[in-house]
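Whether sequence alone determines local backbone shape is best considered at the level of individual chains. The sequence in question and its structure tokens are set out directly beneath this paragraph.

===
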Amino acid sequence: MSRLSEERISFLAHGIVGDLVGRRCIDPTRRGEVLAVLKAGFSDFEAFNDRIDEEVRLKIASLSKKVPEGSDEWKILYRKYRTEGMGKHRGPTVK
């Protein structure tokens, strides 16, 4: 799973805010507030994905049959367990 760097998060958040201001969806005076909320949301989403990834990797590692990371079988198990993990956990919520 690829991570979003702080620079990428900032780039995306600024782009979204710029678009929202341009479309008159938000008051330009609240630009900083909306930017902070978006950056926090992206960061929370990344942390959530990291937790799911860690759980999935631990689950695969705990199997009695050792499955080499990167193998076709490992990739299939990763997708399966990630889907299950996403279903049982709630993602980050917007404040």
